[in-house]
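Reminder to self: tokens first, then the designed residues, so the page reads top to bottom the way the pipeline ran.
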């Protein structure tokens, strides 16, 4: 059960008379969120860059065909002011999930910071103009809380929670974290300048688990591919990370959007894991015919060779993450939103099985 009984009871009476908006509707998290919203019988306004791309919208259309809710698709652009006006008209709740999730980019300011920050401002400023909007749920990230696992050592409690803000990211170090921090800070600034709608923030850790479409792509799926295609055949580092199931993230958004008491930030992470731990869990499920790493690479080797294998992995990143566990407190997401996190094995197995079923992915063909 992904939500506790109290939250389920409260959501049983949610108002279905007004539509809700989901930005970035063809994204990984957005897909599972829209699935839940349609399942609840809501009318979903799906904002996408190209409504004419029927291939990308096919999975969402299939959800609508099998559930009681309704789906309407609108054209919108993160960097175009006013482009969300039509999609947001009449909506009571806005779920802003659209933001780039890319680790390696040519220009961090152009490719990460600008779309994250300006996109957030455009959506929230439109919420100011739409009198129907009562709540905005922002998909932020744990990256707005920290840059590196070692940052936990400098927190007051020795762990990451909602009281912590990222102060170590920059354009030259953990640029993605920098973009998410600036975007969430911009959201809070806009929210605090008005009193009509409420901002609720979800801060997920690394999101894994099955997508609504077998051919979904993105950083989460690149990680899964790297674990399975032989890239890490000789071993994987003890690079600590938080992990959460994409379906649990969707449940968190649902609760944040409709629970009367939902407010503030919510660190949404179910497990503390690492590259090597994920590999070992997967290997037991997948079998020996897949080149999944089970041997831990020594820290000195990762420090020496990591930057040569991947330009996004600097020696500073290695030194502040390899051998450091992701230490966190998810009490608020469990008590305030009612989340009950799925087992990590379930998340990995379901994600792996979905990718294995996708015959177009050679990475999931046995050796």
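Designed residues (367 positions):
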């Amino acid at each position: 059960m992904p939500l506790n009984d109290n939250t389920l009871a409260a959501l049983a009476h949610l108002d279905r008379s007004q539509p809700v908006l989901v930005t970035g509707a063809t994204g990984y998290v957005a897909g599972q969120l829209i699935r839940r919203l349609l399942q609840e019988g809501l009318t979903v306004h799906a904002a996408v860059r190209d409504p004419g791309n029927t291939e990308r919208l096919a999975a969402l259309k299939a959800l609508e065909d099998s559930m009681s809710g309704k789906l309407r698709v609108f054209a919108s652009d993160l960097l175009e002011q006013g482009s969300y006006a039509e999609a947001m008209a009449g909506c009571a709740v806005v779920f802003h999930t659209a933001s780039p999730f890319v680790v390696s980019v040519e220009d961090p300011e152009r490719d990460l910071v600008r779309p994250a920050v300006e996109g957030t401002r455009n959506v929230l400023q439109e919420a100011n103009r739409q009198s129907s909007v009562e709540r905005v749920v922002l998909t932020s990230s744990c990256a707005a809380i920290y840059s590196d696992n070692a940052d936990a050592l400098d927190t007051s409690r020795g762990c990451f929670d909602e009281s912590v803000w990222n102060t170590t990211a920059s354009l030259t170090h953990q640029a993605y974290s920098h973009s998410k921090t600036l975007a969430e800070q911009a959201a809070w600034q806009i929210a605090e300048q008005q009193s009509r709608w409420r901002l609720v923030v979800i801060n997920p850790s690394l999101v894994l688990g099955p997508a609504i479409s077998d051919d979904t792509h993105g950083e989460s799926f690149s990680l899964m591919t790297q674990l399975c295609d032989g890239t890490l055949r000789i071993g994987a580092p003890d690079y600590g990370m938080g992990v959460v199931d994409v379906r649990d993230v969707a449940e968190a958004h649902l609760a944040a959007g409709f629970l009367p008491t939902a407010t503030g930030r919510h660190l949404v992470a179910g497990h503390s894991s690492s590259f090597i731990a994920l590999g070992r869990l997967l290997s037991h499920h997948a079998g020996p015919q897949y080149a999944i790493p089970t041997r831990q690479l020594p820290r000195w080797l990762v420090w020496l060779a990591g930057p040569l294998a991947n330009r996004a992995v600097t020696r500073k990143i290695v030194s502040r993450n390899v051998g450091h566990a992701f230490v966190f407190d998810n009490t608020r997401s469990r008590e305030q939103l009612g989340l009950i996190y799925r087992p990590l094995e379930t998340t990995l197995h379901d994600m792996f099985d979905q990718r294995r079923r996708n015959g177009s992915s050679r990475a999931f063909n046995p050796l």
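The first strand starts at residue 20 and ends at 23.
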